[in-house]
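Exercise: predict the fold of this chain.
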Amino acid sequence: MRNNIAITGVGGYVGTNVRRTLSKMGVPVLCITQRSITPAANETVMSFDACLNLSALSTLSKCSAMIHLAGVGRHTGGAGYMQNVALAQSAANICLRAKIPKIVFVSGLGADTANTGYFSSKLEAEKIIRSSGIQHTIFRASYIVGRQDALVAKIRRLARKKLPIVPGDGSYIIQPIHIDDACVAIIDEALSGRRTSRTLDLVGPDRVSYKKFAGMVVGANAARSYPIQAAVRNAVCDARAAYDIDELAILLGSFGGDHATLAKRSKMTFCKLGDML
């Protein structure tokens, strides 16, 4: 009987929280990773390379779905693009080889624009998943916030250093979703017996300007703006810049998503913006 869930990207922010949720549910998990991790009681660990061995098929064949989270967010040249594409291809190959019937892939909100290296890689990864013939759900995720998320941590770090936080006027919008809601939606798709393949926006119920969001995190006075030209110059010239080119493009893209369809499909009550921070 297939009752296990395979997960890639197990050491990342979303992966760690998805694993924690599945552990509480008592669902057996196969962690596919190249990192050294300490497995929980419900987890087995396997490397990407080992997945392609014949000896691994009996373990992999117990999985009813794969949650594919592995990827690169900050790109350097074409390396990040190639890694995201290669990881998607590996995930699809593993599912095909082991006859894992479903894959849940977390892409990025705005990937269909392909207007950054990050988005281009995510869009190509989506195409690989769709063309594999495997039943799938592709989530295009907005910012996922909550316990120790990267965006809120960045805003607080800049505020502590008394540095400007908001590139440009900050009027562009984001539509964050709480990490707990994101985990439930992802896991629900992995565990469900739905046979349809579709793409959903993984977004919360509220849209907010970045200026207001930063002000909610550190206070309006601390959420200082700086010229967008300076933000772009820093991104191009300094690898340690607060925002890289991809991040600026994502923010300035002002991407909002279809929360109503996600809410209807998941049938859950989502965390409102004011309760996320």
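Check your answer against the key: The radius of gyration is 19 Å.
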